[in-house]
């Protein structure tokens, strides 16, 4: 079953939460020169033009990145991380339309955010299983140390562990079309923990009324993994009658020191702008 296409959701509140977390983590990794191997296990298309037919169906970016883009000057002045992130978004628009006005026309996906951090000494592997999504990704210019792999991301990652570089950073962002994926992600995190104990791993999960993310969270705790920090951006309480995603979660193994403080500040600004009735909660899921 590969029905999910991220273009329907590009630039929504969950993308903002996930890509800001990713941007903040790479910000810390860039402080040291030693090489990093990056894996993006579920890469998607890489770039999402906002006028694509799929994106125009739901226009979720209007409750996500668009309001932040509109207020980018003021937001950038109040928060350095958000300011830098929004500057990168401006850069993505220029790349898409070099002669165009500063308008939001494209939303960059995780491969783009990761290539922003990629230096000559680093490596990036981008896995995508859907043939059409992989074709989109293949059509994009990427640095030579970024490899696109048409295949299963979790299996591909496990086969490549441990890595040759001193540092490893992984983004796991499945579509969770199959409910087994929550347990598969937990099992993959355990294997990373065994073979590359110091890896920084970011896992995105949806908050849905069925509460399946608890399988993932409970499983990693049971497996005895340590240093797991989580951040949840909650739009509204999941009422009994509610359906659909009510929030976005990020679980980070081995978060860089200071990440929590930095993200809490940025997410509180974003929450106030995108979800005045919502909340952002963070803290250790499993401590050291
Ligand atoms: N990470 C992307 C981003 O932030 O821009 C979005 C990824 S989207 C949520 C999930 C992607 O995983 C979809 O493009 C889907 O086709 C792909 N996918 C589904 N199962 C997969 C698997 N087993 N291995 C690799 N990719 C898979």
UniProtKB/TrEMBL annotation:
Reaction it catalyzes: adenosine(2030) in 23S rRNA + S-adenosyl-L-methionine = N(6)-methyladenosine(2030) in 23S rRNA + S-adenosyl-L-homocysteine + H(+)
Annotated GO CC locations: cytosol
Binding site for S-adenosyl-L-methionine: 19, 42, 110, 128, 152-153, 173
Keyword S-adenosyl-L-methionine included in the entry's annotation: yes
InterPro entries found in the cross-reference section: RlmJ (IPR007473), SAM-dependent_MTases_sf (IPR029063)
GO molecular function, one term: RNA binding
BP-aspect Gene Ontology terms: rRNA base methylation
Gene3D superfamilies documented for this protein: Vaccinia Virus protein VP39 (3.40.50.150)
Keywords: Methyltransferase, RNA-binding, rRNA processing, S-adenosyl-L-methionine, Transferase
Active-site annotation: 173 (proton acceptor)
Residues of the site described as Interaction with substrate rRNA: 4
Enzyme Commission number, as recorded: 2.1.1.266
Presence of the UniProt keyword Methyltransferase in the record: yes
Assembly: Monomer.
Stated role: Specifically methylates the adenine in position 2030 of 23S rRNA.
Family assignment from sequence similarity: Belongs to the RlmJ family.
Matches recorded under PANTHER family: RIBOSOMAL RNA LARGE SUBUNIT METHYLTRANSFERASE J
Stated name of the protein: Ribosomal RNA large subunit methyltransferase J
Species the sequence originates in: Onishia taeanensis
